[in-house]
Amino acid sequence: MKNDTQDLVEKGIMLPLMEAFYTIQGEGFHKGTAAYFVRIGGCDVGCHWCDVKESWNPEIHPPTAIGAIVEDAKEYSETIVITGGEPLTWNMAPLTGLLKDAGMQIHIETSGAYTLTGSWDWICLSPKKIKLPTPEIYPVANELKVIVYNKSDFAFAEEQAAKVTKDCILYLQPEWSNREKMMPLIVDYVMKNPKWKVSLQTHKYLNIP
């Protein structure tokens, strides 16, 4: 990136856009609903099982004016999901301001590892052990989605659930590559602890993005 472009990215006026696409939300509370996804490049959380590792390096994704992102989004859906990578790597206030001005419903999927910026209608917090969420996101999270890769993740899930509000919806979601091993354990856990719900990556079963 050129220096002037980098400055715009750091201010959130441009963002490293990996991809944007219209699809069906596959996970969590809004599963089964149409939404326009905006995937922002850049993440240093580094989950070894991440299925979009190509999103990690922001340098390989073109800095894109947020006005262009919003104009494209308006063509598809009133619900916009900002994801990554880790979108909170960047200042989300300028982008969400423009989306709000356009009358959009704005959701975010985040690990919460960085300061919460922007204005959101729905916050999906998916915390990671490697880099824990910042304290300010727990009280405003609408759903907590913990990825279960091994048995120790159940204890981590309970630790995280203790930090969100009583109105936050709690989900356990099997990591895709290990789902056959972990799903029976998740089902058993939810049946014994019904405050939790099962989340599946239904878009992968539907073979859509």
Written account of the structure:
The mean pLDDT is 94. β7, α4 (152-161) and β8 (169-174) form a beta-alpha-beta unit. The two termini are 28 Å apart. The chain has a 9-stranded mixed beta sheet. It has one domain: Aldolase class I (TIM Barrel, Alpha-Beta Barrel). It is α/β, with parallel strands linked by helices and 209 residues long. α2 (66-74) runs parallel beside α3. It has helices at residues 3-11, 66-74, 93-101, 152-161, 179-192, 202-206, and strands spanning 14-24, 34-40, 63-65, 79-84, 105-110, 122-125, 143-148, 169-174, 196-198.
Give a nutshell description of this structure.
With 209 residues, the protein is of the alpha/beta class.
How would you characterize the largest beta sheet?
9 strands, mixed
Number of strands: 9
Give the strand order, joined by hyphens, for the main sheet: 3-1-2-4-5-6-7-8-9
**Helix-and-strand structural type:** alpha/beta
**What fraction, in percent, of the residue positions are helical?**
25-40%
- Per the CATH scheme, the topology name is TIM Barrel
Order of helices and strands: HEEEHEHEEEHEHEH
Which superfamily, in CATH terms, is the homologous superfamily? Aldolase class I
Question: How would the global form be characterised?
Answer: globular
* CATH architectural name: Alpha-Beta Barrel
Q: Uncertain runs with pLDDT below 50, 5 residues or more?
A: none
Number of domains: 1
Number of helical segments with 4 or more residues: 6
| Percent of residues in beta strands | 15-25%
- How far is the first residue's CA from the last residue's CA? 28 Å
Radius of gyration: 17 Å
What is the C-level CATH assignment?
Alpha Beta
Mean pLDDT: 94
Pathway: Purine metabolism; 7-cyano-7-deazaguanine biosynthesis
Binding site for [4Fe-4S] cluster: 43, 47, 50
Keywords: 4Fe-4S, Iron, Iron-sulfur, Lyase, Magnesium, Metal-binding, Queuosine biosynthesis, S-adenosyl-L-methionine
EC number: 4.3.99.3
